Amino acid sequence: MSNAWQPTCSIESLRLRAKLLQKIRSYFSARDVLEVETPLLSHSCGTDPYLDFFTTTYEYAAQSNKLFLQASPEFAMKRLLCAGSGSIYQICKAFRKGESGRFHNPEFTMLEWYRVGYNLDHLMDDVEDLLVFLSKESLSLSTTEKYSYREVFTNVTGLDPFVFSVEQYSAFVIKHNRAEALTICGHDHNLWLDFIFSHYVQPSLGLSGFCLVYGYPATQSSLARINIENPEIVDRVEVFFKGVELGNGYYELQDAQEQNQRFDNEIQVRQEIGCPLVVKDDRLISALYEGLPDCSGIAIGLDRLLMILTESVSIDDVLSFSIQRA
Amino acid sequence: MAIYSTNEFKSGLKVMLDNDPCAIIENEFVKPGKGQAFNRVKIRNLKTGRVIERTFKSGDSLESADVVDVEMQYLYNDGEFRHFMTPESFEQYQCDAKAVGDASKWLKDQDMCTVTLWNDAPLSVTPTNFVELTIVETDPGVRGDTSGGGGKPATLDTGAVVRVPLFVQQGEMIKVDTRTGEYISRVKE
Fold it and tell me: Is CATH 3.50.50.60 correct for B67-127?
């Protein structure tokens, strides 16, 4: 292709991105949240079985020279929180191998922030404030909606996400012409939830404004803490707009031992399904033993937010150079 | 036989699905924040022409289908089969009515067309986008009508029936868009 040197987005889109970054910085600066930078390259990585990592090597020590490009700045930022940074935010690149499509580029820009002393409700208000502040000039928004995972899942499908019934789940997908779900999901409750949520629930979320979904099943906990009143759910929130996922946040798990156990469980799952080997972040675990302040944090995909603000069809339309032209 | 993984599914890729050759139309990567990624794929079954949607777990794969499009010349119809020939190698292929499908109404002896081969056997026939055919039967039109409004049915030498403007007469040659079945213009001899 002869025009492959050219940017995939317009110059106007570059300006909008610059303006968006300025507004984000002014929002956090006005609230005394400190901007930080952490390394993109790390000796360790996440253990999420559904993430694939870019790796590289660096000849600095004979015993360990493998480095991972971060899939998110979460671990390094938590180490700063444990070291006493107070509330922090970061705008950085994150890398996820194999993720490419209309809403995915393997290298993308993330806004991640942590608020000390915030629980999930506080964080959800903060997310709403920021997103409305960033988009009110470009979009006419209806009021931000907030639903529990169970509520929104049941409203759309009539199914209960917390009561696993292969029969009912199967009947639902067969009725909606996706019988292949039976083969894909088998008897795996979480896979069924992922399948049904992403095919049927998500497309209906946030059609005219931002939509926050909280109270995810405890089996999809990741780094969130278990809800104090209901052990079936975790204090995790996801943000949607026009059926597109924009961000994922937690009331952060403080328990070092439990976090370590979750990492080990995920590493075991990775081995069972044949994922590439990962290196557990022992430094994060050490930091958690030292003590993570009571806090909530979230990551927002800035490229997708720009897509929404500019009503773009593809992520390529807001990237200077998408992966094909990088 | 090549194997394609979901991240290689591109528009136009020919794969085997449920034992039928298919062409990928669209591939959308869907990934919940923390969970299994899926690929929602639109696929055309090349045997039936039907378009279906199918979801795959990301990383799953399909076998490639040995499907190629070959430019051929339409030779003749022997009543049961229609015969085609590749102009370079003079290799001949016979197609039954199922493979020829709707293309039959646009095929005139000696015309070029595209024959899709699956494992070297004809799967479907696609006529060129525009064909020039002769009107063998149509009602006499009203002289002076050049607007094209209204129109009348005309039977062509291949048996196809298209709507033509009133001024177009029996015996004339016309240009037709085979994708829509619509009259384009008269052809000056």
Answer: no
* Alpha carbon distance B181, B160 (integer Å): 9
> Among all residues of chain A, which has the CA nearest to that of B18?
A180
Instruction: Return the pLDDT at B144.
Output: 58
Query: pLDDT at position B136, please?
Result: 95
Task: Tell me if residue A60 falls in helix, strand or coil.
Answer: coil
Of the candidates A50, A193, A199, the beta carbon closest to that of B37 is on A50
Rg over CA atoms, chain B: 21
Q: Which of residues 112-141 of A touch B (CB under 8 A)?
A: none
The CATH T-level fold of domain B3-63 is SH3 type barrels. (2.30.30)
Cβ contact (<8 Å) for A248 and B27? no
A233-241 β-sheet, strand order: A34-35, A88-95, A107-116, A295-301, A244-251, A233-241, A211-217, A145-148
* Topology, domain B130-186: OB fold (Dihydrolipoamide Acetyltransferase, E2P) (2.40.50)
- Residue of chain A whose Cα is closest to the Cα of B57: A184
Quote the number of domains for chain A: 1
Locus of tokens 């409750």: A189
Q: Which residues in chain B show pLDDT less than 70?
A: 141-149, 189
- Cβ separation of B28 and A102 shorter than 8 Å? yes
ipTM given for this complex: 0.86
- Say if the Cβ atoms of B33 and A238 lie within 8 Å: yes
d(CA B17, CA B25): 14
